[in-house]
Fold:
Amino acid sequence: MNWSSRRLKEAARTFLVLAIVFVSVAIVIEVLLGRSDSRIATEFMLVTSMVIAIQVYVGNSGLVSFGHIAFFAIAAYAAGLAALPPERLASIAPDVPAWLANMEASLPVAVGIAIVAVIIFAAFTGVPFARMKASVVSAATLALLVLVHSVINLWSGITHGPLGLVNVPDLVNTWVVLGTCLIITAAALLYRASPWGLRLQAVREDEVAAAALGIPVARMRFAGWMVSAVLMALGGSVWALNAMAFAPAQFYFTDTFAMLSMLVIGGLGSVTGAVLGAVIVTVLSEVLRNLEGGLAIGSFEIPELPGIVQMATAVLILLILIWRPGGLLGNTEAGAFSFGNLRTKGWRR
Amino acid sequence: MTAQLLIQQLFNALSIGSIYALLALGLAVVFSVLGLLNFAYGEIITATAYTMVLLVSLGVPLLAAAPVGVIAGILMSVFTEFVAFRPLRKAPAYAVVFSSFAVSLLVQSFIRNVVSPRPQGLVVPAWLDQVITVGGVRFPALSIVTIVIAVLSMLALTALLQKSRHGLAMRAAAEDFETTRLMGAKAGRLILLAFAVSGTLAGIAGVLWIAKIGSATPDMGFNPLLIAFVAVVLGGMGSLRGAVLGGFALAFVEVGLQVFLPRDFVPYVQAISLFVVIIVLYVRPQGFARRVEERVA
Amino acid sequence: MSGGLVVDSVTKTFAGLTALGDVSIALAPGEILGLMGPNGSGKSTLVNVISGVLTPDRGRVIVDGKEVTGHSSYTIARAGVSRSFQTVRLFRALSVRDNIAAVVRGAGKIDSQVDELLERLRISHLADEKAGSLAYGLQRRVEIARALATHPRYLLLDEPAAGLNDVESDDLEGIIRQVVEEFGCGVLIIDHDIRLITRLCHRLHVLSGGRTLAEGDPQIVRTNPDVVRAYLGEKAAAELTKGNQGVKPEAQDSPIAGTE
Structure:
């Protein structure tokens, strides 16, 4: 087909850089961290990979989606329900259909089921969304988030309602998490370098011109939506099997905002940006979370400030948007800096 | 389904639809001029509600507090324009989604920390609590007032758009909002006007809203936001008429579902109406609007 | 499959204003047709109708025997129509190379096709620059390269020479000629540069107030008194007399109406 070897090479270089980062983190986790710390770290890695999945759609299409957390939710619940043994399910989610309840799925099966569930849901919603006017898609995805969250909360027969699923089997170790991150990163970079990714970016830049030059706008948006959904399902299901317990509140605004802010801050247009943003926001959140309970520095007291994490992130987003609307990295990938480029162009980019 | 029940439910749908239509119209006014959605729109309702709660708790009668509440709503709307939209005039379209969303969260945090995270109650005067019963059908006074005020507001807006100079300017800008977005100071005043009008409509809706639900919470703006969004999406293409239709349609779907669904499913009304909306968009992506067409500068 | 891009009695109104009134045009492959007229005469609207960005209220658009009236601009593009825009609409954040690669259609490796087009428009040295960062004249050239990348049968150029100096303009002329000779596509070009238009085009079509004012051989159309009257005042008249190519005395004495 119409693959460009230049774009593929840049993608490969970027993957190398990010893979090194992920592998290093995984090694640190395995070797240095204790049990509880390593859980936090693997969770961070999975959240990062989900932000990358969101970037695949939002970054390439330029359309803000609040609905990806809905994919996350569906994947988590699907994987959780599949993996939970029937005895435990019977008491918390009695209405789960027998074929699903009796499964005590292994990791690949649970993930597979989650992906299939999300594909069905994403295909169904993707068609009308891809044909919608760009300016209203964001609102529609917000409605999607509310829809899914509401159903999960109410249908306690299969989801255990607001209490969520607990004691989901721990089928995941550090290497599985690493593998998931690498697969998602590779897929995201590959898509970005692919003809479909490029055309979606053209649509993002100028929808009218793209259509007038023969790019099928709705089809490209649909493709981005689906690829992003599948990767979200992968990350979300592995997350569920790592976290072992979750409730509907997990899949609503706080997390949506957190993940989207990572994208905005780091750079919407690149996978590297997504990773950078995830790191910045996570570090910032951890630092500020310690302040939430109030802090005393010598004789200087900082009072309790619930929600300061969100407030600070919101302010940061506003500042970044005003100063650098594309995010810190904008459209630049790590792989853009090859030795050849630097020699001919210098460090100015 | 008796005639009595039918009339009752029609009246309910009309009353709810009036607020929905007003909300939708407020959002659509800005959208028609800028081509952008205001994700902090719900906070206009919040600002109005808390202002009224504050004033009423200080002993101000509701009728006097209401206009002040609307003014608070206008201020909130204009504040959003200055903080989330104006600085990002040249930025890509998605940037204001994030910036207005950020403003929304900031306002909610502010209220949580400065006022209280707990619900604040509002007591309406006795005359609004009355119910007029005719032939077995209940007509709550508040609902009648709601319908009247909402319809009057929408008519006033129509008059403004058709007759006044500013209204005509806004309609012209609506024809080609891409250019409007990139124009200079002249457009700035026009956009400000659009946000002010939007704030007025949402402020009035906010008064009716808080009078109806009786208590204010920091995140109360989310529901009106969702309603406005859905109605505008249904209405299609920033069409003001479509937004009003969308608002009423949504109300009718909700009330209809409440009437016809078996009791167990009633909590799902919101989810199902959203689902219905997705189906409608499947079949007709442009919503109620006539043909989708791109305006090229 | 009969060749030809045919616009048949097309009418388009915007909120009561007639942008196009019963306009008919035909463009054959290998032909260069110039579209002229004062600002607001409907030139860009016509191009938008042909390329599917707008739908006419009445009339038909036919491409190579296939009716495409009311179809999406995507369908029309796929039928062999390509275009540039009056206000440059590049994919700004993408590199020049990617701008072209995103739309390129045709056999062979994508990278080599793109390289070839860059060569032809002499912008190879800009391949990796962000399209949005280029000077205006260069952006125009990228837009044309991009329009050519789709291997069109019919190319619509909306003021491609706007903002270009004489040297760049001559360059553009050469490129268009070359493209028509090699690819055999039909070109519809809108421009205010009368020198360029008359030298380049096989035929001219003049619009005014959304209606056809005159059409045919460039020399005859140029000296048509209605055309001179309807067109810009001073500037156009000065250009005509400076060019001094068979201008009839009556034309020089025509009242300069100067509608803008």
In short: Residues 58 and 97 of chain A are 35 Å apart (CA to CA).
